[in-house]
Automatic annotation (TrEMBL):
It holds the Pfam family ARF_AD. Auxin response factors (ARFs) are transcriptional factors that bind specifically to the DNA sequence 5'-TGTCTC-3' found in the auxin-responsive promoter elements (AuxREs). The lineage of its organism: Eukaryota, Viridiplantae, Streptophyta, Embryophyta, Tracheophyta. Residues 113-216 form the TF-B3 domain. One of its GO terms (biological process) is auxin-activated signaling pathway. It comes from Camellia sinensis var. sinensis. This is Auxin response factor.
Amino acid sequence: MANTTELRQVEPTVWKACAGTSVQIPTVDSRVYYFPQGHAEQASSPPFLSPLVSSQPLILCRVAAVLFLANSDTDEVFAKIRLLPLLRSPNPDCSSRGGDVDVDVDEDAVVSFAKILTPSDANNGGGFSVPRFCADSIFPPLNFAADPPVQTLSITDVHGVVWEFRHIYRGTPRRHLLTTGWSKFVNHKKLIAGDSVVFMRNRRSGEFFIGVRRAVRSNADCGGRWNSPVGSVRVKTEEDGNRKEGFSRNGKGRVSAESVSEAAELAAQGMGFEVVYYPRVGWADFVVKAETVEESLSVFWTAGVRVKMGMETEDSSRMTWFQGTVSSATVPDNGPWRGSPWRMLQACEPHILLTLMEKLRVHFDLQTTRVYVVICLTTTCTTAVASGPASAFASSSPCDYAPSSPPSSSSSSSSFLLLFFFFFLLFLLFFFFFFFSKFEPNSS
């Protein structure tokens, strides 16, 4: 990772828009829990962690500082968080403010729109097809009396570089396009189909910004389902990214194993440490608000607990909710991470979701706790990626919770009856058609 002292800090509202609406960043001076296992899962290779670290699977800390930054090679936003371990206090309200971003940040100050690039958009010799909503809500209004309606846009990226694009309304049927300047942007940012671009406008200043979210090639480990080794050194593996691009597209490689080991060891020793967090689809938060963790630890999780699963699309355009049920809740009794609540929940989800998993940011809301999960497409169950009995806690929002009672099957039964009724009507239609066709009067 590049030295953060050389990186330009990103405006928090712009950072939040680039990261996505579901990303949670704790406030300065708030109490949080740090989970070494979750941190290790984001490393470029399995880090070495001593028995001292594994004996403390979650560590209470205070947030000392937060920097909102962007990777100089990929434009991906990340946060650098300074944490100070605390002695567990009987008074959980001490120096705790909660929240997701800095209290002075006005999230409504920036309006944004994200689009996943099509092969045509990512063609370095073509243009960018602007969705109508983006043109109307983000870009300045065009003069449709002109022929053709055209304007030049000056848009700033996360590094402060200004890019100029020609915005025109033309074609059959007519549509909004970015032409001149777009190919240069695509080449410089090494964009491919599947990457996302985020257009933003500051409501107050009228400034325009552009960000990038990189497409991630799925891995066989479904997001890192391994438990970090303790007491044995692992050899750092080479990144499998595209060497021509100069960075990895498998989601790994941004955080070194050495930096994770250093942070975890300092945390276990009660010393201040820094972590780097890249918001990524399918990855669990490893720095979580203390209130959320403590509330979830007080819940008796058991098989049969009904949960709601909210799924945010990669372009952050919508959220869809589905019902699920906890199938297993276990804490390891032995092994290096004995007693760790990380990944203790396993929840089954509807079969219909299996086709949606690769491009969806998935998380569970368990009572007052949002639990991020990693999906393995070869099974009908999801494994919770988190700490505490509720997994990797990220927010406190109410949801349906009914221990020891399986989800109702009325929804699936109703769907079956409707489908049966539809085919029955279709059968009757064909039956009457063929029946009456045999009795048509002979014109001769």
